[in-house]
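Narrative summary of target 7.
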Amino acid sequence: MPYERHSSIAHSAYHDLLRSLKDDAVSGLRGTPTRVERNGRVYWYDSYRVGSDVKKRYIGEDSAGLRARLERHQQLKEEAAARRRNRTRLVRLLRAEGFLSLDAATGSLLSALAASGVFRLGGTIAGTHAFRLYEGELGVRYGLDLMAHTDDIDIASFSRLSLALEDTAAPPLAQVFGDFDFSPQPSLDTGRSWRWKQTRGDTLVEFLTPSFSDAENLVELPALGVDAQGLHHLNYLLAGPIQAAVTYRSGVLVQVPRPERFAIHKLIVADRRRGSGTRLKAEKDRRQAAFLIEVLAADRPDELLDAYEDALARGPKWRSRIEASLERMPDTAALLTGL
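Modeled conformation, tokenized:
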């Protein structure tokens, strides 16, 4: 399908906004950056004293970019006010360039979830809201046919990571949701809920986590203080997520799946939607997958090929679902075959 690109000015402005938000993520350190190694992985924490106790607040997983920011965190702290003003200007520029904007209700909710630590602690936005955020990452414009309205916000995380971080959202998500008039929705497991619905609107927030067993049961996410619905194939989607900027107020830093994994995962999800009431959702999944695969085949063919081959290598059930979707998408199938 044909698509348009944002201007080079808009693409640069988006990445300037994202860079500034990443700088801000380490500018509020209260103590000393501390390196912690667990199970062969390295994490960074902000260690500070409260009375006689030493507290640790999770910052992020080790990377060259994070280490560079930690080395100059004091300078970043001093420049925080100037960065915020510049981000407001960048968001205004992006809107003028035609970037999609969020409604105030969704933007304020994502901002509150970010402030509580949801995305810092491993939460990853999935679904259509993640798809929207690839506009800046890939520098492409979206048509109305791709952007069917949704009030649902899906947030996914690994339960093992949530346990390993030894940090929790603050304020607790129950308090955040209460402030926005959300209430937990009942599930088949008495006393447990993985869905929160807004009582004065239609917004629904769902928490998801990879299932590594035959059953897709509810699993606790200790860092977020919520339960999550286990789903097959989600571990593939969540591997190596990236950070993204939401163009709300002066910007909000969130986390989304890698676009190439999102695209291939949509092929799997579309085939899983077999019920009569899910036909429109399956069509939307295929449209989003086709759009991303076309863009990525041109711009990031190696990353797309790696993601495609990874999914095919995970077994016959994975291959059959992908092939079933691609039978309906001959142009997309040809692009993947030609990588």
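The longest strand covers residues 41-50.
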